[in-house]
Amino acid sequence: MSSSVVTLNVNGESREFLCRPGTTLLDALRDSLSLTAAKKGCAQGSCGTCTVLVEGRAVFACLVPVETIGSRPVETLEGLAAGEALHPLQAAFIEGFATQCGFCTSGMILAAKALLRASPDPTRADVVRAISGNVCRCTGYEAIVDAILMAAARLRKTATRKRAAE
Amino acid sequence: MLRAIDVPQTAAQALNSLARARDAAVLAGGTTVMPRVQAGDSGIGALVSLGRLKLDRIEAKGERITIGAATTLAAMAEHKALGFLGGAIESVGSPTLRNLATIGGNLFMKQPYGDLAVCLLALDAALTVVSKKGARKIPIAAFLAKGIGRDAIVTAIGFTRPAKGSWFYRKAMRRAQNSAAIVAIAAHLPQAKGRIDDARIALGGCGERPVRAAAAEQALQGARLDAASIAAAAALLAKDAEPFTDAYASAWYRARVLPVHFRRAVFGE
Questions:
Q1: What pTM, to 2 d.p., does this model score?
Q2: Contacts 24+ apart (CB under 8 A), B224-233
Q3: Which of A5, A45, B178, B184 has minimal Cβ neighbours within 10 Å of its Cβ?
Q4: What is the pLDDT of residues A108-128, one digit of tens each?
């Protein structure tokens, strides 16, 4: 049971750390890299609180051994804000009171980010589907769905403005 | 507790790695194996990942489809040739889970999970299995009955795409998203000159593994696809089904709703 050195590309930075065989991405993020936004709820792939992006796709970090990731980029909630400027999803969650206890928030936002990357103009049903792997223990789903739709609308507006400016 | 994880580049290396430890297990998407490992009492001491074996390709040559065993359900859902499986894929877990879960892994699930295995049984799929003796093809029915032994790896799954209008699928769930099956039904009902010829019906939630509904299939041979023939076949499903009780539904309930969902599957109700 010898530990080995693993290198991961997390939030655009190359991070190197020592880990035991089969360490999950979630444990590596939280325990080795001090990135604690992704939460450990069930460690069974059922609750979604550990959702992060690998190559832009949402995955349960508790199910992914770090040795299997290779050079694929990992994105966590800590990588979303640009300095002090929140990502539109983060801003919409705050404005829309979409966080109650906050335990599911990181996973919800990353599942939403993966959705908006693939479909920038989602329907309410699309949003419900996208977060169907994420449990909110406060059952605050309506506000979360509203916030994601609000962020999607803002992101589309920004994209339209950018295109017009060009 | 895990001693080792291997991420080999070739099937030969993977087979060597599997043979090296009696307590080694194959790791594909990790959605079933990793929860067991994390629970701490899995008895799994080593993992052999299929992640770098390039088993994630989908080939469509005419109507013949071959899917690498480590292809994710999400990748399958995005492939044009697999549109007929869209409903079945969508019924498995959540989009996040489907980004990890693989078609090969789905074959090893115990019911009421493993909805794609139900579909593959109705498609009479052939599995490519590699072991130290070489590669061989085995019908999915033989795989479901006997397994492949611990020194072998499923590398691909092949089947012929059903003709338009001959494929039917329905999964009864406790909620619209992210639920295991109460019952799942996949049916291939091809017709020649208006008569059903060579029906294949597979059931989920009706035994530890997906099962063929042989009595109902026989009843449909040569019949027209109509309300009467489907009702007669539905009444025979119980002959091949052994529904069980779990947290999702009781055996009684599964048996009760099975014929109803079969009818709904066929008529899209």
A1: 0.96
A2: B224/B194, B224/B195, B224/B196, B225/B189, B225/B191, B225/B196, B225/B266, B227/B267, B229/B196, B230/B262, B230/B263, B230/B266, B230/B267, B231/B263, B233/B201, B233/B262
A3: A5
A4: 999 999 999 999 999 999 999
Of the candidates A20, A63, A115, which has its C-beta nearest B100's C-beta?
Answer: A63
DSSP single-letter state for residue B165: T
Residues of B within 8 A of A43 (CB-CB) are: 35, 38
Residue B218, both tokens: 């026989």
Q: Which chain B positions have a beta carbon within 8 Å of A130's beta carbon?
A: 95
b/e map of B171-202 (b: 16 or more CB within 10 Å)? bbbeeebbbbbbbbbbbbbebeeeebeebbbb
pLDDT in tens, B33-79: 999 999 988 899 999 999 999 999 999 999 999 999 999 999 999 99
Cα distance from B268 to chain A (closest Cα, Å)?
A: 21
Chain A residues touching B2 at Cβ < 8 A: 1, 20-22
Residue B27 touches chain A, beta carbons under 8 Å = yes
Of chain B, the percentage scoring pLDDT greater than 70 comes to: 100
A52 touching B (Cβ < 8 Å): no
Beta pairing partners, B192 = B195
B152: left (phi over 0), alpha (psi -120 to 50) or beta: beta
CA A116 to chain centre: 12
CB contact under 8 A, A1 and B96: no
Residue written as token pair 């003796």 = B133
Quick check: ipTM above 0.90? Answer: yes
User: Residue B237 burial by CB count (10 A; 0-12/13-18/19+): exposed, middle or buried?
Assistant: buried
CA distances from B189 to A149, B58, B162, B195 (A): 42, 25, 9, 10
Q: H or E element: which one contains A7?
A: strand A4-10
The shortest C-alpha distance from B30 to chain A (Å) reads: 6
Which of A43, A67, A114 lies closest to B38 in CB terms?
Answer: A43
